[in-house]
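Session log. Operator J.P. requested a structure for one protein chain; no other inputs attached. Running the standard single-chain path with token output.
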Amino acid sequence: ELLNRFLDALGRDERNVFICRYWYCDSVADIASHFGFSKSKVKMMLLRTREKLSAFLEKEGVLI
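Structure written below.
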């Protein structure tokens, strides 16, 4: 439930990149090619999304 709420709050591109990487285990290169982003943009999006997820989980009282 928490993960779904988190994902619902993300923008479309951010959510799709995150799901491709961590649900479907797509490579950064494949994600970049699919969405027309550079690999560095995908890596930065993933880093920022992980940071947002960490902050969200802490706010919800989940210890990481």
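Operator note: The mean pLDDT is 97.
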